[in-house]
Write a structure and sequence with these properties.
The protein is an alpha/beta fold. Helix content is 38%, strand content 18%. It has 14 helices and 13 strands. The strands form 2 sheets. Strands 3-2-1-4-5-6-7 form a 7-stranded parallel β-sheet, sandwiched between helices. The protein has a 6-stranded parallel β-sheet with strand order 10-9-8-11-12-13, with helices on both faces. β8, α7 and β9 form a beta-alpha-beta unit. It is globular, with a radius of gyration of 21 Å. The two termini are 13 Å apart. The mean pLDDT is 91.
Length: 369
């Protein structure tokens, strides 16, 4: 069986790209990549081959659509312009996409994100992988539902992404993303702390992900600044613009406990030294990849929402004792929890992986469609 994985970009640092790497390596299947072009970020094919391994065949580059039908849709004018530009170029290059499929005879085309939904075509056996929580107007929902009905199958990463869209009118399944965190046991946490300028008695909080409102990055920084516990340290990890950093510096006001670390290609050292992973979404939107990576690394997680909203989440019963909740975007409540948690660093850890189970579930799906 030969698969074409279609990725919105060449980014393998964040959720969807990192998941695709894990899936491709664990499945053992032969596959090609089709990667979406970017106006500002060139595609590093050498890095893609290094990340995806020796089962990767050809790499193709095309302009691909970017339909932001999800929670946290970016209102930045440049991002909106880039999305329009990508869609127009996709329409122009659509014939090239079909030529790639026909010349290679793929058994399955795997669209790795909801934002690629304009590419769904009932002429081909396509899987749509939904990682985003839909949030949009009725016409957008109708458009998505129609396109989904043309897919051979839809994979949701958790019950929240499925609930937001309802019945796709095709075969649909919830398969948890792959998480491979056992290797963190081999990292020297004490040395990593020294390299980051942390003392061994610091209680480390971290937020990982792009600096943007849907992740609540500034909200987390503001809330942590209110929490005055001297042992608490916040690591802010993820890509940010110059304007983001300027705003963060104004919020921080010289607070040395808050460290802006920028983007890390491999966040494993951050998980190795973190006691608590923070999330700042403005409502309960389901546990993200970062949450599970933290839990699989032995960290505890502080998450917006009510515990009752999370009981149907994947592996909730296994991890419920390591998850704390606070009212979304309530800075005083979050500051209080941070102060309280700073008294209780994580002492005992276990490191886990579900990569093999994920690959097994995915291959089972391939054999059913």
């Amino acid at each position: 069986m030969k698969i074409l994985f279609v990725l919105p970009s060449g980014d393998t640092v964040y959720g969807s790209g990192r998941c695709a790497v894990q899936l491709a390596r664990a499945s053992g299947l032969q596959f090609d990549l089709l990667v979406g072009k970017s106006l500002i970020h060139p595609i590093d094919e050498e890095n893609l081959r290094r990340q995806f391994g020796d089962k990767l065949g050809s790499i193709y580059q095309l302009w691909l659509p970017n339909a932001n039908f999800y929670y946290g849709e970016n209102k930045n004018i440049f991002v909106i312009f880039a999305a329009i530009h990508k869609y127009i170029m996709w329409r122009i290059q659509k014939r090239k996409f079909r030529n790639i499929i026909q010349s290679n005879g793929y058994d399955v085309i795997h669209l790795n994100s909801l934002i690629l939904i304009p590419m769904v075509d009932k002429k081909y056996r396509m899987i749509l992988h939904v990682r985003e929580v839909f949030e949009g107007a009725t016409w957008k929902r109708r458009y998505i539902e129609k396109k989904m009905s043309h897919a051979a199958a839809v994979i949701y990463i958790n019950p929240s992404t499925r609930k937001a869209l309802g019945n796709a009118g095709t075969k649909e399944i919830v398969i948890q993303d792959p998480f491979e965190m056992e290797h963190i046991a081999d990292l020297d946490a004490a040395e990593i702390k020294r390299n980051l300028g942390l003392s061994q008695d610091n209680v480390v909080f971290a937020i990982l992900g792009r600096y943007e409102d849907r992740n609540g990055t500034e909200f987390i920084i503001e809330s942590f600044h209110r929490a005055k516990h001297k042992k608490a340290v916040l690591l802010v990890v993820g890509a940010s613009s110059d304007g983001d950093r300027t705003r963060a510096e104004r919020i921080i006001e010289g607070d040395s406990r808050i460290r802006m670390l920028g983007e890390w290609k491999d966040p494993s050292p951050i998980f190795a030294v973190s006691d608590y992973i923070l999330r700042g979404e403005r409502f309960f939107s389901g546990f993200s990849r970062t949450v599970y990576e933290g839990l699989y690394s032995g960290c505890k997680v502080i998450f917006p929402g009510q515990r009752e909203e999370a009981v149907d989440s994947l592996q909730y019963d296994e991890f419920k004792d390591n998850i704390l909740f606070y009212p979304p975007r309530d800075g005083n409540s979050l500051a209080d929890i941070i102060n309280e948690c700073a008294e209780y660093p994580v002492i005992q850890r276990s490191y886990r992986s579900n990569r093999d189970e994920y690959a097994e579930a995915y291959i089972k799906l391939l054999n059913q469609i």
